[in-house]
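RECORD TYPE: protein structure
NAME: Copper amine oxidase-like N-terminal domain-containing protein
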Amino acid sequence: MSKFLRAGLLLLLVFVLASGTAMAAPDKIDVIVNDVTVPTDVAPYIKQGTTIVPLNVVQKIPGISVTWENTTKTITIVRDGETITLVAGQKTATVGSEQVALTVASSLEKGHVMVPLRFIAASAGAEVVWNAKTRSVYVAKASDALTAQRASANLAEARTAAVQFPRVSLLKNFNITNDTQNQDYYFPEGKSDSFFIQGGNGIDYYKVSGNHSELVWRAKFDYRTKASNSLFFLPYKIVEQDGKAPSITGRLAFYHLMLPVMEATYGFIGTDGQMTTVGQNAMALDKFFEIQGEK
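PREDICTED:
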């Protein structure tokens, strides 16, 4: 084999290996704090099963103060009067007066402070969810005011808080066609701890848990094709879904929000699929009112 052929084969091998490495490189990770994707100068990554993020990400978590002391390489977190410290390069943290082991130490990388997200978020009382399907990390923590509103005896106030709770998801995303100017909300009658949101040819079902709402079922349907399914209020052919479909046994309260005029028709849908409209009111986005006759 001539030296020119060997050189050519070597170059080809290098190209293939480089291409394979590039193809195998993981996709970027999105960090979503209270429904807002946090921009980062340095890409988050996973190490030993722990998501590592730049310090500016955890500074977005509500309810805590996060500072960096460059001389001692110390991160200080204060929450409700309790102090938590981490030192770059050390696999322990101090919580109050106690030492806690860390799976991965915080570090300095090219001038950026990188920290273990879950440990700090948990220290802040936030929920952390890793969505492997979308390579997204959700950090969710409702404010004290929203949590208090969620506990209100006024059903409309409780529903407003539930829909405004920060959301997490373990489900994949769908390409939804929203060619309507409406938004529909459905609640089991007399309840505020679960709800559906429908827009275009997609529908999401959330359940409230702790200080967040979790997307537990998502579906895409063909509203041009009538079909029966387990949801009496959605008489269309479901073409794609993810998660566990809910079982609804009683009638639903609905709000049909017309976005151009910000008014909603509202009422009930019986288990036979029949809709009873009670009235029409002005309605701000995600802000509900009581429905007369609701039990």
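COMMENT: The chain is about 15% helix and 45% strand.
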